[in-house]
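To fix ideas, we close by showing one paired sequence and structure record:
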Amino acid sequence: FHTVSEKVLSAQGSQFHFRQLVSDSTGKPDVIEIVEMTMPVGDEGLLFKKHVVNTDEDIYVESGVLSCTVGQLERVVPLESGDIVHIPAGVPYGCKSLGPDAAQIFLITASSALEDFMTEVSGITGNPSDLLNSNGKRIDKMMEIAKKYGISFLN
């Protein structure tokens, strides 16, 4: 794999560093996206509030402590430095940084949906957080954009 693009965006106190990697060792291009995120203590992040995506995701905790609520039965999965959790496509989940320090995590996926979503929302407001901290029409617009990228917020 080699890096083909990088981008940094911020929202709600969390920083997102997107890296898109491509490999064509199989004769057809394979693309993965690695998103490095810093989540302040207590933060549920822009997308880590309960949501569903239409692609598998893996979350690796580099440092810090997270609590992830996964599935319809809302199973709580505690994660610490060195832990990884696999979230299958279509399974609802949300994570929260528990502290005592900010959590540094890596989200690994075969989709650029998160980056595309945040880029489009940033183009409208300059900052994805602006849609969350505004009136209902703007939140509805964010939900509409999210749906376009296969993301559904549940809370």
